[in-house]
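forwarding from the other thread:

> can someone predict this with glutamine?

sure thing
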Amino acid sequence: MARYIFITGGVVSSLGKGLASAALGALLQARGYSVRLRKLDPYLNVDPGTMSPFEHGEVFVTDDGAETDLDLGHYERFTGVAARKTDSVSSGRVYSTVLEKERRGDYLGKTIQVVPHVTNQIKEFLDIGDDEVDFMLCEIGGTVGDIEGLPFFEAIRQFSHDRPRGECVFMHLTLLPYLAASGELKTKPTQHSVKELQSIGIAPDVLVCRSEHPIPEKEREKIALFCNVRKECVVAAYDLKSIYEAPLAYHRQGLDQAVLDAFQIASAPKPDLARWHDVYDRIHNPEGEVKIAVVGKYVQLEDAYKSFKEALTHGGMHNRVKVKVEWVDAEIFDREDAAPHLEGYHAILVPGGFGERGTEGKIKAAQFARERKIPYFGICLGMQMAVIEAARNVAGIKSAGSEEFDHEAGEKRFEPVVYHLKEWVQGNHMVARKSDDDKGGTMRLGAYDATLTEGSKVAEIYGATAIEERHRHRYEVDTKYRDQLESRGMLFSGMSPDGKLPEIVEWSDHPWFIGVQFHPELKSKPFAPHPLFADFVRAAVEVSRLV
Ligand code: GLN
């Protein structure tokens, strides 16, 4: 049976609960324990798949095809443990499960209530897989006191009572604001936040206090006294230059020790932090810099592209260079020459995206990279744009486009070299979708196998011809145009095992031009950079040496 660590937050949002949870997971792993991390989100969407990346940041996709919160990305990047559908639980999922059961008659005529039915359902989700790991870390989204979070707080309170004593630990993140006028860190908001938690029956064991200034011993004692925690369990969290310093920084502040003490585990192995020291060294001592243009639409909100921004950083770490990412709004050169906007970069990346806005600019970015022989990495929509560019400008299919844009516009304007996929094979069964299906979860989602052409650039980069990568898209490149494109040098070097769905394209006569239908960024880790990102940055380094 796993021990449970519940991570909650107070005072303000965006304190870095996800990061603290991920770092704690990494530290427990470093001591030889197995961990799983889980996110409980109070919002009513069944999953974040339908939420705008502007509002909620990136949708992180798991191997088993769940569209989840971007915090699960942090968890994976820090622990390397692949998240599952059951590691992301929103109020929406809880309620829809309860209502399904109610309709089925599972509650035998009872009146359905938040307590116990909703809370029991949350506890059922918490229980999943508890026999597989030593520690289950469960982060509760939002801040204590939010109306919609209450059922989750009540459920974790009950859960800790249902379990044997000492099997659950509560860790609470707060903020110590600094008053410049009096030169003081203020502890009152933390006290109030803990009081709020206590009023719903939860006494935190460990307090993690975010602060922009060193926390004096006196303040630490005061927090311990007023918040009813041990002094060693008041852990400081200072701002860091890079998120990947977090495991080392939290270890220095005694977080893992405080948690182990709270569980009364006296005999924990010493942590092996070699992996994190290496990561630290690579981030802080780069031997060069490359400038990469990311040509996208959600350039206003970096969180919308979280994973691949991180994957580029990992690629940089692999090559011991700093990757300077510059966000270029594709719409700016929808109607004008792209060159003035793209000159001077060592590589160009076109990430995933939805809808027609900005796509003409992305197509121009692909053309610029192809003609100038600048490294180009197209991810999902970025691959589709590269294929459309090749079809229009190399194969002479002037009206080439994607069915996605015609669907959106409600009229037929393009020859669909990228078409809406309605039926495909997953493992050994067929999946079918209609155009008017619900928006949630109707894409080709999660891990799929691909077969790479022997001798191709990608097979060389992966060092394999059989790979598995995560997908999230509705549209596919049509194999109808394969011969036309291949005869002109655009190779379909990765295909689904049945040969029907193009997974990777590459220009054979270009130093580095690769488009992938999947999202390799989702599987990259600081200590195990994804091979495509590592090699893409290597290619950018080569360009930087030429100029
Ligand atoms: N909009 C494209 C599709 O649905 C690409 C999606 C993506 O880039 N994730 O196929």
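The pocket of glutamine is lined by residues 352-354, 380-381, 404, 472-475 (CB under 6 Å). thats all i got for now
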